[in-house]
Amino acid sequence: MPLLELGRELAAAPPVPFWLSCATLALLAAGTFLKGFRRLRRARHLEDTPTSRIRSAAQGYVELRGYARLLPGPDIVSPLSGARCTWWRYRIEQRRTEHDSGRHRSEWEVIEQASSEELFLLADDSGECIVDPHRARAWPSLSRRWQGSSPRPARIPARTPWLTSGDYRYSEQLIGVGDPLYAHGWFRTQSAAQHYDEAADVRDLLRAWKADRRELLRRFDANGDGEIDLAEWEQARHAARQQVRAEHLEQSLHPELHVLAVPPDGRDFILSTLEEHVLARRLRMQGLALLALGLAAGGALSGLLGLRGA
Q1: Residues 273-283: pLDDT tens digits?
Q2: What is the separation of C-alpha 91 from the centre of its chain, rounded to a whole number of angstroms?
Q3: From the CB of residue 259, how many other CB atoms can be counted at a distance below 10 Å?
Q4: Exposure string (b/e) for 224-244, b if CB count within 10 Å is 16 or more?
Q5: What is the span of the domain harbouring residue 229?
Q6: What is the pTM of this model?
Q7: Which residues contact 133 (CB under 8 A, 6 or more apart)?
């Protein structure tokens, strides 16, 4: 058997390559076991965490379900394809070909990649929550890969093509506007009830006005003598006080803001368009596959040590 023959060759090898092979197998076994258990633990955690409604969610680590929405303002678009979305991730790779003794070897090298950190909304029937996707693990609704002949794609396929060619490979994942969204993250509410220091805010505003003397004179130099006298300065103070009070009133009328972001305690921050049971099953299958790979690597290490000692 080829594997048995390879094992015998490694067992009979000099000490340096033999122990290097053993160390590689040991690291592979330990690393895959650790990743496998993490996948299984993550799947179990997803299934055990109850879903909260945005309006009544507790402060801290929560599970939310809803739909992805855009905040008021400019649209979010993918830099690679220009597609309108709420979240994007892309990667551009270039084929590198090496020639060695008449043999050709090609490999893909990443030349550009990025993921979105723009805020968007998660909405359910009880309210809305701002999502800050920084450092999120995302399972998006759209994932496509294609090839081309330029560093930037000249043509964006409507769907993932079966057969493409070119020295550049493009990958893009998107969460679309209106997509169902399942999320685990750190939930916090920024209350509209705030403490204001009117005197300090008035002083800051007057200081800003004094920095622009021409505008200050235009607004408050009533007699046109190029100076702000005591009466005119009192008018400026009155105007500043009125502006500060109006700003405080506007801020107090704003509703509470709910924000979902990366947990500060190291727990998973997950954004997924997959249903909970689908994502949990996928994680569990990945975990079991990694455990099997770790067992295989551990078995190979044990067999290699046995052959060396025989």
Answers
A1: 988 777 778 77
A2: 14
A3: 15
A4: eeeebeeebeeebeebbbeeb
A5: 198-253
A6: 0.65
A7: 87, 115, 116, 117, 118, 119, 120, 271
